Amino acid sequence: MSYTKGGLVILKEMVTSLPPSEQKIAQYILNNPEESILLTAVMLGEKSQTSSAAVIRLCKSLGFNGFQELKIRVAGDMQAEDVKGYRDIESNESYKSIIDKVTSNTIQTLQETVDIMSEGNLRKAVKKLSKAKSIIFIGFGASNIAAKDAEQKFLRIDKNVQSFSDVHLAATSIANKGNDDVIVGISFSGNTKEVAKLLRLAKQKQSTTIGITKYGNSEVSDFSDILLHTSAAREATFRSGATSSRIAQLHVIDILFMCLASEEYEETVKHLDQTREAVSFLRDKKFNGKRQ
User: Which of 140, 188, 244, 259 is the most exposed place for a label (fewest CB within 10 A)?
Assistant: First the structure.
């Protein structure tokens, strides 16, 4: 995964939270992407009525290595196939139209999530999960679906894993953790206070914290050692944490799981075979209703 796309997505997500001068530059790039990738930092500062120093500060605020990376990622977005944007459903709309819109929105969210994902952070997260003495996934509301999915997946490969939707149970468990344990907080907005507080508690216990949340500054990101981002995709009214963003969270969990499985391939295959055999045993009609 190379940093060749995702510039426009990140700018859209971050624009409203940037300082005034950086916000002007971000808005100029969003309005004039074709022109912006051909400009120097000095020229972009002049065009946006700011300065080259503000352009450099913007790149730092976005988490980029420099102006060149920003231009490359914006250029990559422009080379991608045109998308229709996030689309809301309408009253009494045909089922065929709803199917098309929901599918299009989900595909776009997944693509944006992949475009802004850091391979370096993914590698760090996999390394920590691989060596963890125990793993806790925490999420509330729709994010708990992703937490439970992660628990189910990691249990199948013999990881000591739990998921919590109850904040008190989660706090009780985290209180007994240490630097060999990993706590993964999942929050669509990044500002779910319960998740942020639990990650803060985990850091106090010197556990590794991983945040799965939207791009940008947030309470969850403040207490995360490693960040894996999902597209916020705020454009459509009905696109809440219960729709495409939930799919994006599940997609990140799948990527984490598959990367870990690849790193521990032989062990993973063995554990998956064993769990498959256990489920098959339960389904075997010969043993139904009979004592052994």
Answer: 259
Mean pLDDT of 103-109: 84
DSSP string, 5-35: S-HHHHHHHHGGGS-HHHHHHHHHHHH-HHH
Q: Which two tokens stand for residue 145?
A: 């679906």
User: Residue written as tokens 């907005």?
Assistant: 189
36-87 residue pLDDT tens: 999 999 999 999 999 999 999 999 999 898 999 999 989 888 876 555 556 6
257-274 confidence digits (pLDDT tens): 999 999 998 888 888 888
First to last CA, the chain: 52
Give the neighbor-by-neighbor strand order of the sheet with 208-214: 161-164, 134-139, 181-186, 208-214, 226-230
From CA 225, how far away is CA 209, in angstroms rounded?
A: 5
- Taking the C-alpha atoms of residue 131 and residue 81, their distance in angstroms, rounded to an integer, is 40
CA distance 250 to 184: 13
The tokens for 53 are: 């120093």
CB-side exposure of 287: number of CA atoms within 13 Å?
8
Judge contact between 23 and 16, C-beta under 8 A. Answer: yes
State whether the Cα torsion 119-125-130-135 is positive or negative.
negative
Token output for 72: 């490359």
The letter for the amino acid at 80 is: A
Q: Quick one: DSSP state of residue 241?
A: T
